[in-house]
Q: What sequence folds into this?
């Protein structure tokens, strides 16, 4: 699956929130087409890790490279980089004052300067792909959580990103809606999208991930294929974490 | 109470002049306040500093002092504020174009002072928009300006409109100071003229003046209440 140079490279990344060392010397590389799932206890820095990749969180030291280029600091170059990295949030963050279709077409029209008719056509196709084409003219608040999250995935895909970041995409959903979102993500993974997924869904990690990263206390503790990680976690922290979440 | 009927034209003239000051000052303060608000939330630290300094100066200085600076400071600097003699507009608001500059000075003071409060009302609206909205816009690659225009400001408007209305109501009442800084014939100067120069009893005159201000402020307050109710229903 992995070809050529990696798409995302983090090298010795450190970040502090005040005295709290949230990312402690983290190094990681993600190949093109690779699906990396990040798991770990809450407060371990996994969301922060995900958010540093499109610089929603600036880092204190180290380097992050995307597609061969170091992340730009500010301004237009940073906006361009962000347009190439799709992001899906735990709380959906759909634009509350715009319809679902407008949510999906805003980026292509304003950032990519696509023609509105072409953007709408592609937007509808994407909504169809995630199974909510019939909700196109509704507002976010009129949709269920699962539908909103699928719309958010369509919004990110509309930018035709080189990679997708998922920051706990199913954590705010009712249990019966988790499946529909994971289905969309699984099909994306199968189509060869490069994905970094922070999640607590161990089933998704098992069947869709190429690698599982386990984080604790800001450190990257383990990095292994899912079968190996779930069968034989090497560290005490990972064994402890898995025993807690897999006993129920 | 005969003064209200006998001198109705004086009251009406004062009302019209005060209304003119308020309309012009409200427009000016909304524009300047919006500019200062954009500075204060911009990602560029020096621009933020300029915006913050502006608000700190004009929000914390008494309006009377700002009026003093405008009425005595500007002439000392050799300015008659002639840039406010704007062609078409000065034919409707005739005092803008007169040789006596005090209407223009009062207007400048009122705009500078009120803009600081307008800025803070707009900013409180921006802060009421959940951070995730701006974050999602940034993650799509929208620039700061696009983010404000398409995502943040359309949603902040709802939360700004009521505090903004209070600021404008306060501004209407503050405009009463203009009469003490050389503006002849506005609503508050009317009181001075009728009681001082013409010897009418103070209380009936004060009642007349109050009615004049209430005609401007009460409907504005009622309008705000309606907007607020409509929003509550929409939610």
A:
């Amino acid at each position: 699956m992995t070809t050529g140079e990696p798409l995302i490279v983090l090298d010795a990344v450190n970040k502090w929130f005040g005295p709290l060392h949230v990312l402690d010397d983290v190094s990681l590389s993600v190949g093109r087409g690779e699906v990396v799932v990040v798991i770990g206890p809450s407060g371990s820095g996994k969301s922060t890790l995900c958010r540093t990749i499109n610089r929603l969180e600036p880092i204190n030291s180290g380097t992050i490279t995307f597609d061969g280029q170091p992340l730009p600091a500010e301004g237009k170059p940073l906006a361009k980089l962000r347009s190439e990295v799709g992001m899906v949030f735990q709380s959906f963050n759909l634009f509350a004052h715009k319809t679902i279709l407008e949510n999906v077409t805003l980026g292509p029209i304003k950032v990519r300067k696509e023609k509105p008719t072409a953007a709408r056509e592609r937007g509808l196709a994407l909504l169809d792909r995630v199974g909510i084409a019939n909700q196109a003219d509704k507002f976010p608040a009129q949709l269920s959580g699962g539908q909103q999250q699928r719309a958010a995935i369509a919004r990110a895909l509309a930018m035709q990103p080189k990679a997708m970041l998922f920051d706990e995409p199913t954590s705010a959903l009712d249990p019966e809606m988790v499946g529909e979102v994971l289905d969309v993500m699984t099909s994306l993974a199968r189509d060869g999208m490069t994905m970094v997924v922070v999640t607590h869904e161990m089933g998704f990690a098992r069947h869709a991930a190429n690698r599982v990263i386990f984080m604790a206390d800001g450190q990257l503790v383990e990095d292994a294929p899912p079968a190996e990680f779930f069968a034989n976690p090497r560290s005490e922290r990972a064994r402890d974490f898995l025993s807690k979440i897999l006993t129920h | 109470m005969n003064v209200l009927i006998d001198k109705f034209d004086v009251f009406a003239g004062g009302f019209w002049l005060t209304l003119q000051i308020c309309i012009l000052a409200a427009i000016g303060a909304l524009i300047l306040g919006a500019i200062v608000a954009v500075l204060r939330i911009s990602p560029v630290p020096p621009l933020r500093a300029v915006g913050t300094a502006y608000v700190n100066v004009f929000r914390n200085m008494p309006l009377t002092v700002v009026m003093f600076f405008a009425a005595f400071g500007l002439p000392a600097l050799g300015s008659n504020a002639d840039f406010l003699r704007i062609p078409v507009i000065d034919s409707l608001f005739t005092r803008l174009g007169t040789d006596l500059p005090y209407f223009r000075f009062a207007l400048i003071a009122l705009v500078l002072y009120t803009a600081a409060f307008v800025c803070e009302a707009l900013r409180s609206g921006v802060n009421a928009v959940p951070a995730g909205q701006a974050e999602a816009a940034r993650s799509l690659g929208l620039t700061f300006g696009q983010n404000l225009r398409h995502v943040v400001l359309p949603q902040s408007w709802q939360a700004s409109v009521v505090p903004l209305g209070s600021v404008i109501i306060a501004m209407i009442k503050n405009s009463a100071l203009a009469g003490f800084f050389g503006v002849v014939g506005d609503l508050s100067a009317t009181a001075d003229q009728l009681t001082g120069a013409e010897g009418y009893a103070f209380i009936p005159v004060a009642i007349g003046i109050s009615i004049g201000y209430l005609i401007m402020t009460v409907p504005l307050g009622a309008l705000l209440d309606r907007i607020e109710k409509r929003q509550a229903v929409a939610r």
Q: What stands out?
A: Residues 175-190 of chain A form the longest helix (16 residues). Chain A is about 40% helix and 25% strand.
